[in-house]
Amino acid sequence: MTLNLFLIFVGFVGLVWSADLFLSGAASTATNFGIPKLVIGLTVVSLGTSAPEIVVAIIASEEGSNLLAVGNAIGSNIANIGLVLGITAILIPVTIDSNARNKQLPWLMGLTVLALILLANGSALTFNDGIILLFGLVLVIYQIWNDLKREDETYVKKIVAGDQSLKTQLDSEIAELATLSKQKGLLFTLLGLGLLLISAELLVYAAVNVAVLLGISELIIGLTVVAIGTSLPELAATIGAAIKKQEDIAVGNIIGSNILNITAVLCIPALMGGASIELSQLVRDGGTMLALTLLLALFAYGFGRKSEVTRLEGSILLAGWVMYTAYLINNA
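User: That's the sequence. What structure does it adopt?
Assistant: Structure tokens below.
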């Protein structure tokens, strides 16, 4: 047991470090090759913080632990809203910008409901369900891509019109990303990806062993231990963005990561053999994910108030996550 717990710890540290390495390398590489910064934000940053969930889901499904992959996807969404956003808002109240509120959040709510419907259909994820989730991901990327193109056009028009402050800001942001040469950027990207795979392999191996030794379902391990570990990059990125007063990145990171968890992560066990979940588990875990998502929407739309997650609301989100996790542990 001690060895397995040590391997879990090593896997967590490896996931966080390798995800950061991969993110730095990929961002620098994309910048060095002239990819627009908004496209980098959509693809590289979102993928970088969600890479642990994606890689863990692939490794777990390959080894026949599909329930662990399902638990990781659902549990990460619960942890991202309850734990990550809750702690961030308690430290620094988080303002939610109009783009996240009006464009990204509706997609998250719709995809959350879709995932629950697919899971409830015979309480199993099938190959066809995986295709549907992938199609949902394509639709989201298509819409956000169009939004980004329009935003890029606005940036260009303002710069051409002589908005020197905007040009200075844009140049500064690009320079901050381009901290590595092309060679180092590619090396960091490949090294980070390789370490991600190794760390995920260690984590899944040890987590499955712990589940067997304690007689606990792989789903519970995925919902708790693995979900918390793979949400650490989101916690670091969200708190860091909030401290820098970049609330749009903080909330956008949470929403974008949860969208990827539902589409890019949950589709993996569906495509790689399928996964069955009991109805009671779906109500407990899927219901918690939906409830926290709806709470986030309630705080975001604000009903006439300033659209933000306050310290009180962050405390509510965190308390919800703590009670849910305590219930899982007590009834494991």
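Residues 2-330 form a domain with the A middle domain of Talin 1 fold (CATH 1.20.1420.30).
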